[in-house]
Description:
Blueprint: E1 12-15, H1 19-22, H2 30-46, E2 51-54
Parallel strand pairs: 1-2
Amino acid sequence: MPATALDKNTALVVIDLQKGIGQLPVSSPFVDVVNNAVKLADAFRAAQLPVILVTVALASDGADRVKVRVDA
């Protein structure tokens, strides 16, 4: 199957395209990333393939933040 072909088991998962993320330093302008995600989502929906939007949110006090050894 060519890289441009999608089978019926393919889904698009868009993770964390929210304002707070857009303010972080990135290699491409955030608006371009969002615009490309919209184009992909439109194409997936037109092909009747699922689009899953994931937003990660943490407690304001950081209590649910993953703590790793390097944080110590």
